[in-house]
Amino acid sequence: MPVTTSSERGPDLHTPLSGVPLTHGQLPRYAAQFTLLAAIAAGIALTLAGWNPAASAIIAGAGYVVVIYAWSRTVEGPRKARDRLVTAVVTGAFLLALLPLVSVIVTVVGNGIARFDVEFFTYSMRGVVGEGGGAYHAIMGTLVVTGLAALISVPIGILTAIYLVEYGRGRLAKAITFFVDVMTGIPSIVAGLFAYALFALVFGPGVRMGIMGAIALSVLMIPVVVRSAEEMLKLVPNELREAAYALAVPKWRTIVKVVLPTALAGIATGVTLAIARVIGETAPLLITLGITSSVNLNPVDGRMATLPVYAYYQYVTPGVPPEPALERAWTAALTLIIIVMALNLIARLISRLFAPKTRG
Amino acid sequence: MRKGSTVLPSTERTRSRRAPQRPGDRVFSGLSTGAGVLILVVLAGVAAFLVAEAWPALIAPADEVPGPDGIVLYIWPLLFGTLLAAFLALLIAAPLAVAIALFITHYAPRRIAQALGYIIDLLAAIPSIIYGLWGIQVLAPLTVEPAGWLEENLGFIPLFAGPASTTGRTMLVAALVLAVMILPIVSAVVREAFRQTPRLHEEASLALGATRWEMIRMAVLPFGRSSIIGASMLGLGRALGETMAVAIVLSVSGGVTFNLISSGNPGTIAANIALEFPESTGIAVNTLIASGLVLFAVTLLVNMAARAVINRRREFSGAN
């Protein structure tokens, strides 16, 4: 082998520089994947050998982390090894967070599917003891109360967002922004107590009405609407406003005819998500509406049933025998989860199909 | 040019005047300002009406309010339970939330990162009543065996003193359910901050030969630190006010104890209101509203502090 100088063959990376090597080893390209496969195989083997599946999953996961760290540390050195360790831990944390989501959905569908029938959606609980009965009254109640809450919150929320983006200057705007943020953190039960306290002062103690629930839900819904509408209005390019002003269009017409239509899809998405957030609220409705077994669609006349409260009472006071009521509770939960997921999906679809027209 | 001399005075005049205010403008700006002010009024109203309805319980003699020794000793164990459950939940959720945010912003493949974010957000969409049902049906039985093990082997720590509950309706399970519930909100705020890490900082540290973890430790985490604090406090606020899940899961005896795995737990304010309110009348209702007022004050303070921390970072983020 002829002796060549390093300038002809590129820099010499193999001679240590005062004892420190310039290169170090690397794991094979698919080392992580193979180790993972081995860990999964070991986990399956443990399960087949009669171990608890959860325990074997934990052992397999920990085994993967230990093996990849030790292997990488011997071959690649401590820095790279720690990098691989963190990658494994972070990915593991994400998968761990998915577990409850999957478990909740599997549990609710598994327990709720038994009574997911026509009777459940067409019958109320009037005069029902034991088997049968449904949640028609509760579903209608939920629609009425949530609809009223949306009717109150959407105009207030959007107008506030318009104020913050188009008009708001100075300390009032700052205060509103800050307190809207703070308002998103009000516990739902406190919103319920507020509605109760408000009406108890007027109608006396022990009052229960649909409109009280709607007001409690509005307190929770308004800040969500304001936040999302504000974000969307801020996305509207200023050139559009300036073009309208240049044509001598008054400010309010600019807002109504130019700004709002441009941001409409985003605002609709935000409103849908806000509805999805409050439709499953239980606590404020529990203390403002109570529960009833008959259909009541009048929001200013006494107790109303709603789906979350219905699920709660069916579960905690099932009666004898308990099975039919527990099944109704799970089916109500399933219905609720379907409604919420559908609303989320609709919101995503709206924002995808009618994306903000920021260009052209 | 031709009309210059005649137009000039009028433009001078319009320039000195502000843009013309049409009636429509006045109505519209009045409406939107009114809506904004209304929100402030509502928030003040929440406090005012709660105080008004809580007042009879606050001035009532100690033997009329429920509980053995007056309103303070009635609310204190509940407040203790609320804080214990919430802090425990935060202790579990915060590291997980940061890891999830890191995974979505820096580890997951770009194309599916957004979809993964949606999936985590779905956790937030599930109503709390369903978490409660899930907690008592699935999670509680799962913890019975490990809780027994904890009592046997770590029983010398007061947290695991036992006797271990046989139903699993313990403070530990309540905190776990709360942790799952606050995970999405915390990770969403942290994710937003991580995503705004200056690209140049990240690239500079990678160019200096840092591994991905070293880059995250040196560029991403310092940038997101105050967001992590703020988001954790937001999550704490959520956990403090969470009602139904705790009401369903927790088995309450009323004492003040740090024991996490027994069946005798302090209740929480929110869950106690939900459980007691439907059957209460008279002064008992006022007492519950007074406890709600305490909860409102605590969450308000936590949320205001959280927002202040997050907003401060927002002001600096442009310059960094």
From TrEMBL, chain A:
TM ranges: 30-48, 54-72, 84-114, 134-164, 176-203, 209-226, 258-279, 329-350
Domain of life: Bacteria
Gene3D superfamilies: MetI-like
GO BP annotations, alphabetical order: phosphate ion transmembrane transport
Pfam families on file: BPD_transp_1
Signal peptide residue numbers: none
GO cellular component, one term: plasma membrane
Molecular function (Gene Ontology), one example: phosphate transmembrane transporter activity
Keyword Ribonucleoprotein: no
Record localization: Cell membrane
Membrane topology: Multi-pass membrane protein
Coiled-coil annotated spans: none
InterPro entries in the record: MetI-like, MetI-like_sf, Phosphate_PstA, Phosphate_transprt_permease
Domain ABC transmembrane type-1: 139-347
Keywords per UniProt: Cell membrane, Membrane, Phosphate transport, Transmembrane, Transmembrane helix, Transport
Function summary: Part of the binding-protein-dependent transport system for phosphate; probably responsible for the translocation of the substrate across the membrane.
PANTHER family noted in UniProt: PHOSPHATE TRANSPORT SYSTEM PERMEASE PROTEIN PSTA (PTHR42922:SF1)
Similarity field: Belongs to the binding-protein-dependent transport system permease family. CysTW subfamily.
UniProt protein name: Phosphate transport system permease protein PstA
TrEMBL record, chain B:
Annotated transmembrane regions: 27-51, 71-104, 116-136, 171-190, 243-263, 283-306
Keyword Kinase: no
Topology with respect to the bilayer: Multi-pass membrane protein
Record localization: Cell membrane
A single GO molecular function term of this UniProt record: phosphate transmembrane transporter activity
Domain of life: Bacteria
Domain ABC transmembrane type-1 per the UniProt entry, residue ranges: 79-306
Biological processes annotated in GO: phosphate ion transport
Presence of the UniProt keyword Cell membrane in the record: yes
Location of region: Disordered: 1-25
GO cellular component, as recorded: plasma membrane
Keywords from the UniProt entry: Cell membrane, Membrane, Phosphate transport, Transmembrane, Transmembrane helix, Transport
Gene3D superfamilies documented for this protein: MetI-like (1.10.3720.10)
InterPro entries: MetI-like, MetI-like_sf, Phosphate_PstC, Phosphate_Transport_Permease
NCBIfam families (alphabetical): phosphate_pstC (TIGR02138)
Protein's job: Part of the binding-protein-dependent transport system for phosphate; probably responsible for the translocation of the substrate across the membrane.
Family (UniProt): Belongs to the binding-protein-dependent transport system permease family. CysTW subfamily.
Protein name (record): Phosphate transport system permease protein
Organism: Prauserella shujinwangii
Taxonomy of the source species: Bacteria, Bacillati, Actinomycetota, Actinomycetes, Pseudonocardiales
